[in-house]
Write a structure and sequence with these properties.
The protein has 267 residues and is of the alpha/beta class. The chain has one domain: Glycoside hydrolase/deacetylase (TIM Barrel), CATH 3.20.20.370. It is built from nine helices and eight strands. Strands 1, 2, 3, 6, 7 and 8 form a six-stranded parallel beta sheet that branches. A two-stranded parallel ribbon has the order 4-5. It is globular, with a radius of gyration of 22 Å.
Length: 267
Amino acid sequence: MKKIFYITLSVLILPTATHAACPDGKTYPVHFTFDDGPHLILTPRVLEILKEEKVPSTFFVLGKHFAGGKGNAANKPKYALLDRMKKEGHRIGSHTYEHINHPQFSAAKVKENIMKPNPLLKDYLSPVLRLPYGGGSFRSSNPTTQAKNNMVMKTVKDAGFTHVGWDIDTNDWDAKKRPTLLPTMLKDICRQKGGVVLFHDIQKFTVDNLRDWIRAVKREGHTFEPMEHFIPRAAEPLPPEACEEDSMKPVKALRKEVDDVLEMIKE
């Protein structure tokens, strides 16, 4: 009887072993990223989970959340979140100012939307940027579409950023796909041999399940790596010239010229 009890107890206290669950028998590096925040209620929960699980991540923040900069008292808790992200070892990237599909806009508007967050976030941004919807970063067989995409990507580069897309889109915003999110993500990690994973820290569903997803990835034997494992430039600061207010003057002047021409056409 004592022997049986001892065996049972030993099984209970053994830690869960990780294993290579991919068909090729290998494990891969993974990096979680979060778009569209910060969210004053949900983002702190994300940060707490990441801290407890020791997972370095990247937050692609929207500039419009910081309208008015540090002079706007309402922004104080948002900047406090950015301070916490930096302190806890995460990277902060730009998600541009407004959440627009850039190829649908003029070159002047594209440049303005990409550059506008920089002075607001100059103490925090790494030189990495993710375009909303990935708009402009995809290849197209349509010459007109590709020309617009080229314009957007050139603007990103000229602004001092490296564009960071994603290898695995969890579609965490889509209620129809949520029931299969975890098995699909684990399968995609194997298929893509790891990579950058896309989430949104403004989705309650994501925050509620994030800890379980992280632990599932760990159980598969995969490792969480910082952004610089995939994009070395992420460890560098954003170039100071990208944050200068004067860099926006040519854009504003060009937009005024365009508006004047449109007014003349209306008349």
